[in-house]
Amino acid sequence: MRVTIVTAFPEFFEDFLSTSMIGRAMKRGLLAVEVEDLRKHGLGSYRQVDDYSFGGKGGMVLLPDVLKSALSSVEARRGPGYRVSPSPQGDLLSQEVVETLAAQEHVILLCGHYEGLDERFVERYVDREISLGDFVLTGGEIPAMAIVDAMARLVPGVIGKESSVVEDSFYRGMLDNPHYTRPSEWEGEGVPEELLSGNDAGIERWRRASAAKRTLARRPDLIGRANIRPYLPKGVYVALVHSPVLDRQGGKSTAAVTGLDLSDMARSCRTFGVDRFLVTTPIASQRALVKTVMKHWTDGWGAEANPDRGEALDLLKTFPSLERAVAWISKREKESPLIVGTTAKERDGAFHWLEMKRRLLREEKPVLFLFGTGSGLHEEVFGMCTAVLRPISGGEGVYRHLSVRASAAVVLDRFFGWR
């Protein structure tokens, strides 16, 4: 990772770049940070780098000619870079922003001071302004350190234990779980028994559960960004319901199975970590068709031609009714699932997907998402549901005629997609 910091105060970074993990990463060649002294490009014998703000009410502003000279020198020596200016007017720094910066070949951090950089230079030469939060510092040096430190953690080898990076707060969209060290009892408080059990699987379950509880309690706003699949202790299932569904006139009907629905929804289920993809139809020949399609991709010629498709279709399981599917899940999980229906029509009492996401984390039960074929699920099916999601909408929000395949992909991404 290559970073260049342009600053009028290079001494700010001497200790930062030579100590702790950043210093070790620099010595090992995992991180290459160079500091460009803005005063080397200053004007006149006094190396002037700033001047008074026009208008008479502001303080000192860094000169555009000096900034351009420093930037040109850096890029001539180290190559073009992604130019970032720490600024209270910028995007809020988040883990997503850090990951975007870490993916760049060369990041140039242009540190403002006093009132900041001349706006003409910013508009012409700065790719992005980034803020640490809704407060003001005397300069961009402290934010630059924070950005470098956050980026460095993502470089393999900088952090001794790679799993620590993955489990950090915000990396997976959730807060981190609590941590404890010796002694096992301190001021009358003990360490959770799970952490002392020596059971790796039990410890991992405790960590995920406590991270979810902490996020729900302290930062519920983060849940919208998180993939909650690793934090659910029970299974996740998707059912494609062919009966009872609605026909175009709103009557009760049974829809035909289509290979495209099976293939596309199975791939979505595999992508988003669903345990099994259930297909329900009362027609025996239709269930046989599902098995034929599945066998082609898992055991037949299709398995050799496209093994990834076979891996997805292997999740398929057929049932003559939704009731039988729910009974199978209950037996498998030793607990009845939360049944979440989907619809393209507004329904009283329907849940926003974010509220449902939080509910799944709180209740810690298996979950079954229902998607209807034809013109949607029949009222009988909604009677079985624990909750129903509000319709997917976009644009003007009036036209809601997505295919069941597209709807399933959108819903699963909202719950189990990585940010």
Question: How would you characterize the overall build of this protein?
Answer:
It is a single chain. This protein has 419 residues and is α/β, with parallel strands linked by helices. 38% of the residues lie in helices and 17% in strands. It has helices at residues 20-27, 64-78, 95-102, 119-125, 141-152, 162-167, 193-196, 200-218, 259-271, 284-298, 301-305, 307-313, 322-333, 353-363, 379-382, 404-416, and strands at residues 2-7, 32-37, 50-52, 60-62, 82-92, 106-110, 128-131, 185-186, 189-190, 236-241, 245-246, 252-253, 276-280, 316-319, 338-341, 367-372, 387-388. α14 (353-363) links the parallel β15 (338-341) and β16 (367-372). α9 packs across α12 (307-313). It is elongated.
Label this structure with key terms.
419 residues, five-stranded parallel beta sheet, six-stranded parallel beta sheet, alpha/beta, Alpha/beta knot, 17% strand, 3 domains
Blueprint of the fold:
Layout: E1 2-7, H1 20-27, E2 32-37, E3 50-52, E4 60-62, H2 64-78, E5 82-92, H3 95-102, E6 106-110, H4 119-125, E7 128-131, H5 141-152, H6 162-167, E8 185-186, E9 189-190, H7 193-196, H8 200-218, E10 236-241, E11 245-246, E12 252-253, H9 259-271, E13 276-280, H10 284-298, H11 301-305, H12 307-313, E14 316-319, H13 322-333, E15 338-341, H14 353-363, E16 367-372, H15 379-382, E17 387-388, H16 404-416
Parallel strand pairs: 1-2, 1-6, 5-6, 5-7, 10-13, 10-16, 13-14, 15-16, 15-17
Antiparallel strand pairs: 3-4, 8-9, 11-12
Helix pairs in contact: 2-4, 3-5, 9-12, 9-16, 10-12
